[in-house]
Specification:
By secondary structure, the protein is mainly α. The protein contains two helices and no strands.
């Protein structure tokens, strides 16, 4: 395993942990509060608690290098 692949695996794991917390949080709090018509203060708190780790998880997923994972990127319509 190369160092680049190890970095990819670590970033994947960190992103997974944060995003999985968010999914479980919304399952625990009866899904997202924006589906309800009557917003209360705790709906905002529930959304904020779930939204912040999701953004952090997406940040770590975004740091991954696709070439380290063996993903080949194909450019379509390069002439445009």
């Amino acid at each position: 395993m190369t160092l680049a692949r190890f970095k990819w695996e670590v970033l994947d794991w960190i992103g997974y942990v944060f995003c999985e917390f968010t999914f479980r949080w919304f399952d625990y709090t009866d899904d997202a509060p924006w589906l309800e018509e009557d917003w209360r203060w705790y709906h905002h708190a529930q959304y904020f608690i779930g939204n912040v780790p999701y953004r952090i998880g997406c940040f770590f997923y975004g740091l991954q290098d696709d070439e380290a994972a063996g993903v080949e990127v194909e450019v379509i319509n390069e002439g445009r």
